[in-house]
Amino acid sequence: MRRVVRGFWGPRREPVEALAERWSTTLDRFTRLLGPAPGARWTWRTAPASGPSRLLQPDEASLLEALRTAQAADDWSAGNGTSLRLVADGVPPGWKVEVAGLAGGTPEFLLQSLVATIVSPDDERLPDTDLLTAVAEAWRPDHGDVSDRAVTAALKKEAGFRIGTPSVGWAGFLSPGRAARIPADWPAPRKDLPGVGVLLDIAEPGDTAGVVRAYDALRKAGALDPLPQPMTGPTL
Question: Which of 201, 192, 69, 190 lies closest to 131 in space, CA to CA?
């Protein structure tokens, strides 16, 4: 099974040291949620757009070096954000975990993001809401979701969803400004993340109809309005 765990936000300038801390927190929590044994630590390798990959440990010092290398290779990183893509090494057969981020920049039209793509055996039940919580608490995004290709296809076909606009999947995350627009009669379970936003447990994996209904209700209530462009802040 393949799923994608995502968070998106607007411009937020941050020093590379802050990004290294966010990255380290994310990788540590993902390993705890997905790792083969309690306390296990995966190693990771970079997957740059060009040039060789290299192994690294998920500690702040190693990530700081990787981020600085990425910045040096990208003349646009100061404005657009620092891009880093990592692939987990040492995962069990049938698994793949890739985490890609673009963060720390202040572009007016390009969203900052953290996107984790997870492939697992079909009989594995993954902690989707916990994974999205990890992204939300580490990165403080504007919105986020857990979904797959079937969800995206259903939203595009049945609800008019456009790529690049806020969405939800089996789980969804909304920043406080968006959460304030959730309909009063919202039926799905929700969990407040103090100082961060609201996590929505919307449907079981495979239930695209439930996701479409939730998306339509949130969109009509304004909770999924796109960030104004040019963007001036990280959240709605």
Answer: 201
Look-up of token digits 């969109």: 219
Handedness of CA 128, 22, 77, 88 (dihedral sign): negative
Residue that wins the pLDDT comparison between 95 and 223: 223
Is residue 234 reached through a cis peptide bond, with omega within 30 degrees of 0 on the bond before it? Answer: no
Q: How far is CA 213 from CA 51, 127, 219, in A?
A: 44, 22, 10
173 close to 144: Cβ distance less than 8 angstroms: yes
pLDDT at residue 156 greater than cutoff 90: yes
Structure tokens at 75: 């003349």
- List pLDDT tens digits, range 108-135: 999 999 999 999 998 888 999 999 999 9
- C-beta separation of 47 from 87 below 8 A: yes
| DSSP codes, the chain | -EEEEEEEE------HHHHHHHHHHHHHHHHHHH-SSTT---EEEE--SSS---EE-SSHHHHHHHHHHHHHT-TTHHHH-EEEEEEEESPPTT-EEEEEEEES---SSS-EEEEEEEE--TT----HHHHHHHHHHHH--SEEEEE-HHHHHHHHHHH---TTS----SEEEE-HHHHTTS-TT--S-EEEETTTEEEEE---TT-HHHHHHHHHHHHHTTTTPPPPSS--SS--
